[in-house]
Specification:
Elements lengths: L8 H4 L3 H6 L7 H14 L13 H17 L13 H4 L9 H12 L13 H17 L1
Length: 141
């Protein structure tokens, strides 16, 4: 069984001291958290991708978006699973990771979707599913 990436409970409700130190280079808690996520993802094999099923539309969008996310957010691989939260998949505290730019680029590649305004609450599987549904709807018009 593959465990989804998830925010630690302490991260969701940080103390004032933790909030203060989050963005500091080297000691920043967000960088430690990112390293932890990277280690978890690095341990996933490509077998994790079987959790997506065999819908060719889902697989095509997943592969397209995962390649962009892995490259632009500096993930060690593309082995994201449907239950990974988008808020983690698209998290990177490094100054070079420009989240708004990456999201706009993804949108330019797959088209507009209400899913982009819901990223904070969606799992990666829900996000990819909505993009696939929107692509199918636009191709039937």
């Amino acid at each position: 069984m593959v465990t989804p990436l998830c925010w630690p409970a302490a991260w969701l409700a940080p103390t004032p001291t933790q909030k203060f130190f989050m963005k500091f280079p080297i000691i920043g808690l967000d960088r430690r958290l990112f390293r932890s996520f990277r280690r978890q993802l690095a341990m996933r094999s490509r077998e994790a991708l079987t959790l997506w099923g065999d819908d060719p539309g889902i697989i095509a969008i997943r592969d397209q978006i995962s390649a962009i996310i892995a490259r632009d957010f500096y993930w060690p691989n593309r082995n994201f699973i449907p239950d990974d939260p988008c808020s983690v998949v698209m998290f990177n505290p490094l100054p070079l990771a420009d989240t708004p730019r990456v999201i706009k680029y993804i949108e330019s590649q797959v088209g507009r979707s209400e899913a982009f305004s819901q990223l904070a609450t969606l799992t990666y599987g829900e996000f990819i599913g909505k993009l696939n549904r929107d692509r199918q709807l636009s191709s039937t018009r």
